[in-house]
């Protein structure tokens, strides 16, 4: 899971629009892949040079260009020159700590989202920033590493499944956003299973190691909330916008994505309440356990208070004490101490303190 805050100290004081990669370099070399299609044609390839993107500008077909690797600022600058992207947009693409948002620049729409998915080995969750630029005849996507949640979309394009080959760029952009949003369900299901397992472990036998798991889950919940809440605003802006790049026929689809985003947020809040309840149960169990220990220690100390008093009296070094010369004095002291302890134990049991 990514850090909650991305360090930006190295960029402080630089002019707006300065292209600098903020984040970790996750791939060795940047790669440009392209899928150019229409109802009757399909062209899929890896471009050897960024200059080859110029051949796909202004076509009547739909062109999807995917850039993997945000550390190559020279490549990003050339992409911006070819597709006439604003310097501030390029700056946001290179900054991997962006908040999900949507900006309408007239000739194109810029969207940035957090893509969460499970890697192929199923170990943990990968959090990756993906930027989407919707133009008149193209869709640009910028992501940090290979591997994403768009595999099914590529397969639908290749096999002409559904209506994606018949629709325009706006439908492709919608499909990408919908794929990112839908994958949150899978991530939250995994998180929900972990929270339920932690809850069962707490109720079965609470131990200090579980507290660390709870705090880790709370940290992940904060990160998910940071990704999800702005996402609802992004989809709402797409649905209610007046951009000429988005067909009105797409409104029901965007409304459906918005409903999914709201549902995910509701699920997140439910899991958050459950995790808070789990922490409360843990603290209550540990507090009760501590109270039981303190009660036992208090009872033991209370029993020994009169015994210590008796032992203290007969431990004084006075020569004249009535029982010192008595034959049964020692046995009498033991009898007094035993009877006192037994009486106190019986009293505690009647009071149900034991």
Tell me about this structure.
With 354 residues, the chain is an alpha+beta fold. It has two domains: 9-284, CorA soluble domain-like (Beta Polymerase, domain 2); 291-350, Up-down Bundle (Methane Monooxygenase Hydroxylase, Chain G, domain 1), CATH 1.20.58.340. Helix content is 51%, strand content 14%. The protein has helices at 73-83, 87-94, 151-159, 169-204, 208-240, 251-313, 329-350; strands spanning 31-37, 42-47, 62-68, 101-104, 109-117, 126-134, 138-143. Helix 1 (73-83) runs antiparallel to helix 2.
Ordered list of secondary-structure elements with their pairings:
Blueprint: E1 31-37, E2 42-47, E3 62-68, H1 73-83, H2 87-94, E4 101-104, E5 109-117, E6 126-134, E7 138-143, H3 151-159, H4 169-204, H5 208-240, H6 251-313, H7 329-350
Parallel strand pairs: 3-7
Antiparallel strand pairs: 1-2, 1-3, 4-5, 5-6, 6-7
Helix pairs in contact: 1-2, 4-5, 4-6, 5-6, 6-7
Provide the domain count: 2
Instruction: Tell me the CATH topology of the largest domain.
Output: Beta Polymerase, domain 2
Task: Please compute the radius of gyration using only Cα atoms.
Answer: 34 Å
> What is the tally of beta strands?
7
Mean pLDDT: 85
| Order of neighbouring strands in the sheet with most strands | 2-1-3-7-6-5-4
CATH architecture of the largest domain: 2-Layer Sandwich
Number of helices: 7
Structural class: alpha+beta
CATH superfamily of the largest domain: CorA soluble domain-like
Instruction: Characterize the largest beta sheet: strand count, sense, and whether it forms a barrel.
Output: 7 strands, mixed
Provide the low-confidence segments as ranges.
none
């Amino acid at each position: 899971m990514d850090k909650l805050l991305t360090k930006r100290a190295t960029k402080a004081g630089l002019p707006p629009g300065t292209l600098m990669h903020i984040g970790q370099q996750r791939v060795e070399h940047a790669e440009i892949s392209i899928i150019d299609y229409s109802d009757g044609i399909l062209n899929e390839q890896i471009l050897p040079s960024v200059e080859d993107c110029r051949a796909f500008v202004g076509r009547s077909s739909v062109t999807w260009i995917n850039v993997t690797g945000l550390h190559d600022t020279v490549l990003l600058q050339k992409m911006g020159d070819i597709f006439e992207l604003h310097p501030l947009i390029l700056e946001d693409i290179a900054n991997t700590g962006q908040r999900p948002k949507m900006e309408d620049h007239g000739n194109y729409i810029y969207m940035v989202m957090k893509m969460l998915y499970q890697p192929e080995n199923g170990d943990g969750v990968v959090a990756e920033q993906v930027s989407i630029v919707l133009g008149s005849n193209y869709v640009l996507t910028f992501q940090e590493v290979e591997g994403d949640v768009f595999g099914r979309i590529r397969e639908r394009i290749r096999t002409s499944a559904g209506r994606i080959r018949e629709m325009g760029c706006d439908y492709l952009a919608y499909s990408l956003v919908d794929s990112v949003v839908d994958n949150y369900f899978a991530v939250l299901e995994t998180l929900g299973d972990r929270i339920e397992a932690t809850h069962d472990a707490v109720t079965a036998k609470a131990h200090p190691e579980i507290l660390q798991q709870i705090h880790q889950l709370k940290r992940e919940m904060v990160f998910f909330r940071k990704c999800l809440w702005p996402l609802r605003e992004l989809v709402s802006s797409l649905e209610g916008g007046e951009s000429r790049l988005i067909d009105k026929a797409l409104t029901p689809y965007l409304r459906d994505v918005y409903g999914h985003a709201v549902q995910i947020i509701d699920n997140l809040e439910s899991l958050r309440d459950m995790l808070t309840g789990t922490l409360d149960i843990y603290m209550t169990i540990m507090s009760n356990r501590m109270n039981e220990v303190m009660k036992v220690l208090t009872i033991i100390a209370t029993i020994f208070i009169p015994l210590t008093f008796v032992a203290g009296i007969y431990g004084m070094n006075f020569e004249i004490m009535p029982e010192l010369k008595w034959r049964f004095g020692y046995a009498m002291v033991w009898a007094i101490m035993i009877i006192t302890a037994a009486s106190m134990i019986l009293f505690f049991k009647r009071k149900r303190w034991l």
